[in-house]
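Title: [Solved] BD-FAE-like domain-containing protein 3D structure

Original question kept below for reference.
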Amino acid sequence: MQERIELSTGGRLDLFLLSKLNQHYPLKKRGFVMVIPGGGYRFTSDREAEAIALWFNSLGLNSGVLRYRTDAALDNIVQHALVEAAEALRLIRQQTQAWSLDTACIGVCGFSAGGHIALQLATKKCALAKSVLHIGEVEDFQVDFAICGYPLVYYSQTLIENQARFEEKSQSLLNQRYFGSEEPSEAVIAAANPIHYLSEETPPLFLWHTAEDEVVDVQQTLDLAMAARAYGIPIEVHIFEKGVHGLALANEVTALHAEDIEPTVAEWTTLCANWLRRRILRDK
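Solution (posted by the thread starter after getting help):
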């Protein structure tokens, strides 16, 4: 990490900028990827943070890790995390000259709950531009591409029950934390579903998931992919047969347990790099 920026809404953005290197070629403009770790909105996973940002650096892209707040006492943590992410995105776009950024190549990469945040950023730029906390131009919240690993796309009763089981908390307390209400309406829950905000303007998506995921069902990624296809959104999807939830790089670098190493799944980085070169980095 080269620099840390504290966000006014809480949380922070840890930066890994190639433009800050002593031998950086000053005329070279590079893209930027904001990495958003998962953690079930209970914490931000270290395994889905710095190692991912440095991997993007290896592709010649600047990167940063969003460490959004997950305070236990924070009501409506889902919305608050999105507000922090929106502030970070606008900050990045305001520094395009200082950081020598390619303004047409600024994207997000999220995992699990971080994938949920990334997808909302990619689909809600108009709403974010009009929000009370982030009044600004729509262009300030432009996402040029989104990369998501085993993303949470929408909330289901099973998911809420699983979170309650993991944390030994009641469903009503989890609802209060996630949605600001012990009994959120269907409209409130639906508002957190990025599928409802897809449009022809949604940027290209790269998605990957495992069929064995027991925390976030692979059906969520499949539903998102089919909905995106209906809008003609450029999308690449990879479903791997084996693998638990939360694999990150799926190799020794990010493994916490032996089951976190899946050589076949680890190929997602090669697939993603090729996708970026074809769609985002061409002619850069």
